[in-house]
Amino acid sequence: MAVILKDGSVFLHIPKTGGTWVTGVLRDLGFARCSIGHRHANWPHILAPGFQGVGRKCEYLYKRGRYLRRHPRPFTFCFVRHPLSWYESFYRYKSQPGIDWERDGDADDFNRWHPNAVLNGLGCEVDGTARDFNSFVAAVHEKFPGYVTALYDHFSLYPVDFIGKQESLSEGLAAVLERLGFDFDPAMIYDSNAVNVSSGKPSGMEWDRDLRERVQAAEAGAMMRFGYE
Questions:
Q1: Mind listing the pLDDT tens digit for each residue in 34-65?
Q2: What is the rounded distance in angstroms from the CA atom of residue 39 to the CA atom of residue 226?
Q3: Residues 188, 28: contact at Cβ < 8 Å?
Q4: How much is the CA Rg of the chain, to the nearest whole Å?
């Protein structure tokens, strides 16, 4: 979920960018006040979430009214990762036997919003057979060229004060907390174990060269904006 820190700052969790680890470290350090909205909520979905039952709605309204500062706008941060690495991580996670391409929300139902809902069904062929890595990426690229760039834009085109990289997650989080003036032991960040890491690497996860070039070209926006080669 989006996390409100004790100073009013907000962390937005972009899927597959290390956000579960960041959330855990913030809680371990005692800097997280509460979570709010959907686990992967961006600003529009923090401010106007779908109706998900009376209890959760009341909880959301309480947290938003008590802890979410909007004037002045709170310091906001998130993390991204190399777009090609994002495809690899997403496929590796979804193709695990225990996950087996479970659906993320519903693209046609605002109340069941999820940023990756539009990818539902693309992991399998029409007959239900799981696609291999390149077939999956090709299906995403055919339907949504530049998908990862668009995903990042969902979170980062609204005012965001710090965008770190999953490739240097510990350094980025430490830099954010120092900038915000929190007092902490850096070792608690650098020594924190990784979480939510997919087990193993499925066979056949080597990029087809032509597909890699086409996807990389389609993701040029994110590559250039966030400084990836």
A1: 999 888 988 888 877 666 678 878 888 889 88
A2: 23
A3: yes
A4: 18
Tens of pLDDT along 172-219?
A: 999 999 999 999 999 999 998 776 655 555 556 899 999 999 999 999
pTM: 0.91
Helix (H), strand (E), coil (C) string for the chain = CEEEECCCCEECCCCCCCHHHHHHHHHHHCCEEEEECCCCCCHHHHHCCCCCCHHHHHHHHHHHHHHCCCCCCCCEEEEECCHHHHHHHHHHHHCCCCCCCCCCCCCCCHHHCCCCHHHCCCCECCCCCECCHHHHHHHHHHHCCCHHHHHHHHHHCCCCCEEEEHHHHHHHHHHHHHHHCCCCCCHHHHCCCCCCCCCCCCCCCCCCHHHHHHHHHHCHHHHHHCCCC
